[in-house]
Design a protein that fits this description.
alpha+beta, two-stranded antiparallel ribbon, 3 helices
Amino acid sequence: MTYSRQEIMEQQADIIGLLLHHIHAPLVDAERVRGVPPVAAPAEAIRVVVGAADARRADRLTAYEIPLRENDGLRNGYDVIALLRAVLSAPRPLGAGVGAVMGMPLVRVDPAVVEPAEKTPDDLALKVVHTLVRPFTEDRPKPLLLGFLLLGSDRMRLYLESPKAGPGTTAANPLRRHAPARSHREGPPSPSRRAAQPWSPAARRWPVLS
């Protein structure tokens, strides 16, 4: 089955909503979700950044990339959580390191060789309560949240769908009033303010909303 770019983005957004719980609740031991940066099209995957609660530097975080496609369907947030728990609790590495993203080690998880962790009673309770307070609806929030990343004690980056900025994703740092948002592929922030530009494969950068 073929999925459109919009369907993939909506699935990524749905998964983010379920992963938010693990900013505070550990996945395994002290490992928590520290972000879900977007994956550039046409990749059908989701990346989850994991680390300790006080981890902010890239060398203390790890990004795990999990394919969204499962047989003829797409994995949901519960599937992603089960795979992450299996990888994080394994006595030996279950993923393949494939480089780095934003300075963080990038590990690609192969679901064919990873047995998903069993759901806990708390997982099942959360699923029931979550379904009751946030029932499924076709109406999506606007703008659509496609990712986030905790950058420091007073800084968080949000990745938002922004039709006005053209194809791609717009990034904004909402917690620091005077720090301009910038691309994760850029160097130190410039004092000049730049207009948002669409993501370009040639420029290899995400658009930035400043």
